[in-house]
Specification:
By secondary structure, the protein is α/β, with parallel strands linked by helices. It folds into 3 domains: about 325 residues, Glycosidases (TIM Barrel, Alpha-Beta Barrel); about 200 residues, Rossmann fold (3-Layer(aba) Sandwich); about 60 residues, Golgi alpha-mannosidase II (Immunoglobulin-like, Sandwich). Helix content is about 30%, strand content about 20%. A 10-stranded mixed sheet has the order 12-11-13-14-21-20-19-16-17-22, sandwiched between helices. The chain has a 9-stranded parallel sheet with strand order 5-4-3-2-1-9-8-7-6. The chain has a 6-stranded antiparallel sheet with strand order 10-23-24-29-26-27, covered by helices on one side. It is globular, with a radius of gyration of 26 Å. About 50% of the residues are buried. Bound molecules: alpha-D-galactopyranose. Alpha-D-galactopyranose binds next to loops. The site of alpha-D-galactopyranose has 9 residues, from loops.
Length: about 700
């Protein structure tokens, strides 16, 4: 894989929103799907809604180049000129998101493959092997053409590379991928002996004599080598990132001052790409998030995604590149959003760091696979509640323009780690039921319910500013990361580690001497055996830390507490009755807690409350259950914007005598003194001094 940009040569492009007054508002614009009269009406409607940024040409390769070498730029020239005339800025795509039919027919070898050899054919989208040199050449050629044609276009604000890279094909098992995997392994291990050592190939006669013998983990008679699987996850994320970088570097050579991004899918549902490695490669982080209509707590899932995006962006403001105005078309049952939900969703993203709110897509398609996916302009047209809501949202975002550039501050960190996600869910483990994200989300939800604003960070992050650090199922741990976590406790933080953490090193080799190896000394516990529970089995956990008594399932451990480690909750029944379930140890100026089981919601809630109190990271402003309060701060800390989002069906009051809210409410212009009423299902934003 090519690496062309060195840190020294990285240009500093202008900010993506340099030419915007306030927040960005818009969506994916696909005029190639529509006749001229509709395109003209688009401009009128965009003006009415106050749209100021659009993503253009994402899926336009086959329209621009219907036959190889035959280029039709007319419609795109006209689109950009018109948008510029209307004062709208453009996130211009590389048009590479889906290769045109002529390309896959001419070069079927660029099609990706599943582990069982199934070829993913053209006819949907994203049917390309991200590592294939032929595809890469064509994609770079298209990128170069677009960049050269529009390099000086005044509408150009930011380059949008491809689209949701890895969305449908996070891992490709084609021959091209196999060759690239071998190159990646050569770079990682240098010698085949080092690879053999890392992969533990003395087991099951897997010893490799040469890198040439190595394959991706293809469908095999039984479990594939776990380190091979883990490395293939790492490689696949890197290969997709390498594709992004290659296109980005091509754009940078032509337009060094234009920022480059791509739309990530930093959500609890996107396992393929290690976005903590991706973030630093984007000039501005952009994300796509869709709520799951069947999830009654979808606003918590949204908050998680927004916080993860902010973590990937290193705390900087980011672009919400896509979400939906109402229903999508790809869930089993696609319920529309409730009245007020779109506005609340949008402002929730802004509250958590977004400087732009964009949608898929501007106008709802009348043909194709996404025609039942909502858009800013619905099938029903302008005379619709949805359109009126879009106009209202535009107005709200204009009223909030001043929050742009401000940042969220948090003293609680939840550690999220893609290698642990991949590693903890490998086959041939103590329990097939363990789901990494289930633990991460359970802890996030518990903190959200307590009104704690949480940063999502990787295990190697600078943990200095955090008083509470939670590591759910952090399975793969390097020595450096283990030391980083221990240092946070020494320095005074409350550190919480949960089951199946610290088990293996980066090669997926077990850390010997008792679990959880990497954190054994920090936590002052030693586990001799895991004791996962059968499906449907649960045990009772007793102790003040879980509110007296709680239920636990999935996982228990035969754990012993060392001298000086306090057992704060134990199992009351089951095979491990009387054994520690939760422990606590004083470490330096801080504390280290171990939670060896999966607690039910109430137990976890009680424990989280205790931890939040111990760490002193509770919310600054009192709010009723279901009302979310988040603050963004100006750089100098002189001004803050308090966002209050009422996810309940009843009007709510935020702020209490000991935590008053005062300032100006920006959506209504009202002065606020002491407490703030947030209407049922609504949102309020108060500018406060400090
Ligand atoms: C993704 C894609 C869009 C569209 C939406 C539909 O986010 O990037 O092109 O398919 O999903 O929800």
């Amino acid at each position: 894989m090519r690496r062309r940009t060195t840190p020294e040569s990285t240009p500093s492009p202008r900010p993506w929103n340099a030419a915007l007054d306030g927040l960005g508002f818009g969506g994916d614009y696909n005029p190639e799907q529509w006749p001229q009269d509709v395109r003209l009406e688009d401009l009128e409607l965009m003006r009415e809604a106050g749209v100021n940024v659009l993503s253009v040409a994402i899926f336009s390769w086959a329209t621009i180049e219907p036959r190889e070498g035959e280029l039709d730029w007319g419609w795109l020239d006209e689109t950009l000129d018109r948008l510029h005339g209307a004062g709208i800025r453009v996130a211009l795509a590389t048009a590479t998101a889906s290769p045109p039919p002529w390309l896959t027919r001419k070069h079927p070898e660029i099609l990706p493959r599943l582990a069982d050899g199934t070829v993913l054919h053209q006819g949907g989208r994203q049917s390309y092997a991200v590592t294939h040199p032929v595809h890469r050449d064509y994609a770079l050629r298209m990128t170069t053409r677009i960049a050269e044609r529009y390099r000086d276009h005044p509408a150009l604000a930011v380059w949008h590379v491809d689209n949701e890279i890895g969305c449908h094909v996070p891992r490709d098992h084609s021959d091209a991928a196999a060759a690239a995997f071998r190159d990646w392994l050569r770079e990682r291990y240098s010698t085949v002996d080092a690879l053999n050592e890392a992969w533990g190939t003395a087991f099951w006669s897997q010893r490799y004599g040469s890198f040439d013998d190595v394959l991706p983990p293809l469908t095999a008679p039984t479990f594939a080598n776990p380190t091979q699987q883990l490395d293939f996850h790492r490689f696949s994320s890197d290969a997709l990132l390498d594709y992004y970088r290659d296109l980005r570097d091509t754009l940078r050579e032509i337009t060094p001052d234009v920022p480059v991004t791509t739309n990530l899918m930093a959500t609890a549902h996107c396992r393929g790409m290690d976005y903590f490695a991706w973030g630093p490669e984007l000039d501005v982080v952009a994300n796509d998030h869709y709520t799951m209509s069947a999830d009654p707590e979808r606003h918590v899932d949204l908050a998680f995604s927004a916080d993860l995006t902010r973590g990937v962006a290193g705390g900087a403001p980011w672009i919400l590149m896509e979400h939906s105005t109402s229903a999508v078309n790809w869930q089993p049952r696609n319920t529309p959003k409730a009245p007020g939900e779109m506005l609340r969703n949008s402002l929730q993203h802004v509250a958590r760091g977004a400087d732009a709110v964009m949608f898929f897509q501007w106008r709802q398609s009348r043909a194709g696979a996404e025609k039942y996916h909502s858009a800013m302009v619905p099938h029903a047209g302008r005379d619709s509640d949805l359109w009126r809501d879009v106009v209202t949202l535009g107005r709200a975002l204009r009223a909030l323009g001043e929050v742009r550039g401000s940042r969220v501050r948090s003293r609680a960190a939840l550690v999220m780690d893609w290698p642990s996600w991949w590693g903890s869910e490998l086959d041939s483990h103590p329990s097939q039921d363990l789901r990494y994200m289930d633990q991460v989300q359970a802890w996030y939800r518990a903190l959200w319910r307590l009104g704690v604003t949480t940063d999502l960070v990787p295990p190697g992050a600078d943990l200095d500013g955090y008083d509470l650090v939670v590591l759910p199922t952090t399975y793969v741990v390097t020595d450096a990361d283990a030391a980083n976590v221990a240092a946070a406790a020494e320095r005074g933080a409350t550190v919480v580690v949960t089951y199946f953490s610290g088990i293996v090193d980066e090669s997926d080799h077990v850390r010997l001497g008792g679990y959880p190896g990497a954190f054994r000394d920090l936590l002052g516990v030693r586990t001799e055996e895991f004791h996962p529970l059968q499906d449907g089995e649960s045990v009772r956990v007793v102790g003040k830390a879980v509110g007296g008594q709680a239920s636990a399932d999935l996982w228990t451990e035969r754990t012993r507490a060392a001298d000086g480690t306090e057992v704060v909750a134990s199992y009351e029944d089951g095979a491990l009755a009387g054994r520690p379930a939760i422990t606590r140890r004083e470490v330096g100026s801080g504390r280290a807690w171990y939670v060896a089981t999966r607690l039910d919601d109430a137990g976890l809630g009680a424990l989280a409350e205790l931890l939040v109190a111990e760490a002193g990271v509770g919310p600054e402003v009192a709010a009723p259950t279901g009302v979310e309060v988040v603050r963004r701060w100006s750089d100098d800390g002189a001004t803050s914007w308090l966002f209050a989002l009422n996810h309940t069906d009843a009007d709510a009051t935020v702020g209490a005598p000991d935590s008053p809210v005062a300032g100006v409410e920006l959506l209504t212009g009202d002065a606020v003194e002491g407490s703030l009423v947030v209407p049922a299902g609504g949102a309020r934003v108060v500018r406060a001094a400090g």
